[in-house]
């Protein structure tokens, strides 16, 4: 039974977090490509396209936070790589745009989004820790060997 619990921890830590990391980077790259399409094919200004993309990222973060903490908690409880990837991407945006220290709307939205992501990540870590102590998913169920067969 101990081998099964260790195996689940390894799968959760390596495979699920790896897939979550890849999916997050792919999502950010898709949003970046969407920004490029808005600028060159949609004839939107650079600032407008950037603000739209940052708002899409914000909505995705809030929706994912709700889904992973309330609907899919049992399945993705130990996935913790989504928010550090977003934090890293937003830090890259801030570093790239902070050379001129301008107060453009996109820089302000990026800074606010970075703070919100850090707060959400802190809440997520607290919830995972609290739920792990309260209801550990690694503990075996009492009816794990019981099979319910339909009665004819």
UniProtKB/TrEMBL annotation:
Keywords from the UniProt entry: Membrane, Transmembrane, Transmembrane helix
Segments crossing the lipid bilayer: 20-40, 46-66, 78-95, 107-127
PANTHER family assigned to the protein according to its UniProt record, in alphabetical order: SI:CH211-161H7.5-RELATED, SI:DKEY-29D8.3
Protein name: Proteolipid protein 2
UniProt source species: Phrynosoma platyrhinos
């Amino acid at each position: 039974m101990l081998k099964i619990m260790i195996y689940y921890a390894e799968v959760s830590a390596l495979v699920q977090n790896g897939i979550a990391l890849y999916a997050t980077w792919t999502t950010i790259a898709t949003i970046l490509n969407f920004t490029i399409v808005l600028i060159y094919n949609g004839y939107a200004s650079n600032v407008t396209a950037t603000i739209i993309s940052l708002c899409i990222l914000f909505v995705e973060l809030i929706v994912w936070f709700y889904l992973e903490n309330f609907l899919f908690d049992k399945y993705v409880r130990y996935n913790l790589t989504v928010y550090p990837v977003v934090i890293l991407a937003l830090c890259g945006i801030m570093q790239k745009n902070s050379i001129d220290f301008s107060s453009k709307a996109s820089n302000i939205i990026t800074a606010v989004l970075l703070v919100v992501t850090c707060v959400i990540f802190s809440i997520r870590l607290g919830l995972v820790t609290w739920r792990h102590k309260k209801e550990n998913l690694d503990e075996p169920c009492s009816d794990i060997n019981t099979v319910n067969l339909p009665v004819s």
